[in-house]
Amino acid sequence: MGHFDAFNNDLTKKNTFHNLNNHLNSLEDDYFYHLYLGKNQNDLKAMFGDVKFVCMGGTSKRMQKFAHYMKDLLGYRIPTGLTLNDITKITDRYSMYKVGPVLFANHGIGCPSLSILLNEIMKLLHYAGCEDLTFFRIGTCGGIGVDPGTVIITDQAVDGLLRPEYRQYILGKEKIRETQCDRQLIKDLLKISDEMQISRKFSVVNGKTLCAHDFYEGQSRIDGVFCDYTKEEKLDFLKQCYEKGVVNMEMESLCFAGMLNYAKVKFGIVCVALLNRLENDQITASHELILEYQERPFEIIGEYVRRKIMNN
Ligand code: R2B
Ligand code: URA
């Protein structure tokens, strides 16, 4: 990799992220090991300085698909026979694509995997001098009391005890970061869904999202390797969740909301339900149907981003 001058950390400049680590100012270099990019190795300002939107989701293929969807929606063209480049190239932990001011990356499964990606991408965007960023998580989930294929916009992420708190253990102490999502952004996304008459194709709802650190027992499934509760106890818990406004379960919203709230950055979380957990534990929808479901959030977020970029 070539060497570029490190980004000049001008202290008069408005920081993109609040509560930023002061030690970053004194690091001679900062290498993002999981992205195969670095402050001194790449001209981050030239590569990422225009980024305004960051879209994250679990899998690399889905994010590549979303990048192509966004490219077409914005009317950008690439020469026939070529495809969008994966910016992270030789590392296969995460993939990253860029379409104009929109960056796409896959975060893998669970909060620890997402936390690594957010750390490295947020530092990268800081060194690149980006401002006025909006982050989105586009995911899949288990719905609670909603039909498969329903798109859910998260109001607030809650943990397995239904607390709106992202907990980190730092230097032997517990740190809690709040997990409320941006209320205006939720309204804007719901308004866009209305204007696009999305409800003719599928339902869009909003509510709380339970973020589990596991897919099986952590999500009250009875088909995991262990299960010390009855089917009735499971249903009882899911119904309690539903009564308290929880409409879906997934595995990253706490970290996404906790870290971005702490950095005081605008963000939204939009997931599609692959099943209704009041009916099933196993995901039995066909591969084709799941692919179709997974693209539903693209329509709403894509249109939000398009309107912002095109100023309409
Ligand atoms: C949704 O789907 C994945 C588990 O299958 C996980 O990343 C999540 O949040
Ligand atoms: N992702 C989850 O975390 N849970 C589900 O039930 C489906 C997708």
Tell me what you see in this structure.
The chain is α/β, with parallel strands linked by helices and 312 residues long. The protein folds into two domains: 132 residues, Rossmann fold, CATH 3.40.50.1580; 173 residues, Rossmann fold (3-Layer(aba) Sandwich). The protein is 31% helix and 23% strand. The protein is built from eight helices and twelve strands. The strands form three sheets. It has a five-stranded mixed β-barrel with strand order 6-11-10-7-12, surrounded by five helices. The chain has a two-stranded antiparallel sheet with strand order 1-2. Strand 8 and strand 9 form a beta hairpin. It is globular. The N terminus is likely disordered. The chain binds 1,4-anhydro-D-erythro-pent-1-enitol (R2B) and uracil. Uracil binds next to strand 6 and strand 11. The site of uracil has 9 residues, from strand 6 and strand 11. This is Uridine phosphorylase 1. GO terms for molecular function: uridine phosphorylase activity. InterPro entries: Nucleoside_phosphorylase_d, Nucleoside_phosphorylase_sf, Uridine_phosphorylase_euk.
Please summarize what this structure is:
This protein has about 300 residues and is of the alpha/beta class. Helix content is about 30%, strand content about 25%. It has 2 domains: about 1-130, Nucleoside phosphorylase domain (Rossmann fold, 3-Layer(aba) Sandwich), CATH 3.40.50; about 140-310, Nucleoside phosphorylase domain (Rossmann fold, 3-Layer(aba) Sandwich).
- How many strands, what sense, and barrel or not for the largest sheet? 5 strands, mixed, barrel
Low-confidence stretches: 1-12
Instruction: Spell the H/E element sequence.
Output: EEHEHEEHEEEEHEHEHEHH
Give the % helix. Answer: 25-40%
Which strand order does the major sheet show? 6-11-10-7-12
Present as ligands are: 1,4-anhydro-D-erythro-pent-1-enitol, uracil
Q: Give the overall average pLDDT.
A: 94
Name the CATH superfamily assignment of the largest domain: Nucleoside phosphorylase domain
Number of helices: 8
Distance between the termini: 40 Å
**Secondary structural class:** alpha/beta
Strand content: 15-25%
Rough outline: globular
Tally of discrete structural domains: 2
Give me the count of strands.
12
| The CATH top-level class label of the largest domain | Alpha Beta
Q: Give the oligomeric state.
A: single chain
